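Q: For a teaching session next week I want to show students how multiple molecules come together into a single three-dimensional assembly. I've collected the sequence lines for a complex. Could you give me the predicted structure tokens for the whole thing so I can convert them for display?
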Amino acid sequence: MSTTELPGTTPPRDAAAVDAYLADPTRLLAEVEETLLDRRETVTPAQAYALAEVDVDADLAGAGGDGTVLDALLALAHRVRVAWTSEEVALESIVSGKTGGCPEDCSFCSQSAVFDSPVKPQPLLTVDEVITAATDAQRQGASEFCIVYAVRGPDERLMANILELTAAVHEHTEMSVAVSAGILTPEQAQALRDAGVVKYNHNLEAARSYFPNIVGTHSWDERWETLDLVRSHGMEVCSGGIVGMGETPTQRAELALELAAFRPTETPLNFLNPRPGTPLAQREPMTPRQALHAIALFRLVLPWTLLRLAGGREIALRDLQGAGILGGVNGLIIGNYLTTLGRSPQDDVRMLKDLDVPVRALQDVL
Ligand code: SF4
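A: Of course. Below is the structure for the complete assembly, covering every listed component.
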């Protein structure tokens, strides 16, 4: 039985209310602050759309403020993060259980077999490989370990692999295990829950209105239904998306609001890293300021969530990783991503130490 509002309920954009906010960013910021920090409520759809569409380079000096709208948004996002979650940043390591050869056609993904990408199919990860990866991740400070499979959904052989690897990580580390393996059946969701998988990742990827531009082989509604299934079987929902794929700022707000309706425990925020051979290969990455704007937007619309910087952050944020941490982020994926190299975990841990931001658990790595 569905536990979540049916898809198709993207909150409407009240043009008059949004325009009034856009004409007066100082009022927008003050009302968002009052909503989130004084009343401890979530932002209204009009506020969310205005936060996405506001000119972040506008100077607030003339309005009695200080700096640009972006400066103010990031400062507010940080205060909201601390008030709604904690000072701590959680580190997670991901490992690819199955790389490449996916039959789906997600335009951003180098693991799709539909495109002529340099990423070629690899055999399934073995127990020994996962134990090595998991113990390394724990030593580097990760408190969670996520095994990710490039598939539409698991078949019998893949389910057996997932359950075997999950048991191995539990046996050799203290980390909690998350899994990402596409579209599930109710029986598969139950089996994962029984195996002690605490969290299941399945990103909505894009706003419902933009999703057909990005994926043709499955629908946004199918993604939504899997999230609903995961939650109804007692696992935490981890769901986010990718920004910078050509969506409008309004559609970025739509995605944030659609996710908010689901109240995910965790929201990975990916930035398009244009991969060779994919349909989005020629798209320009976001600028660091655009990426920071997206971070602040997602924090302000999803104040409770573990907002985790994920793939593409090195490309989009460049040297402004720290500004993201002080702009609403409270989670990082450390080490390499599924098919691209990330910064070294040591660089990330040092950055957090320099920022005086505590890392959740495993303080000894510092
Ligand atoms: S995003 Fe996932 S489902 Fe889509 S092509 Fe890549 S691996 Fe397959």
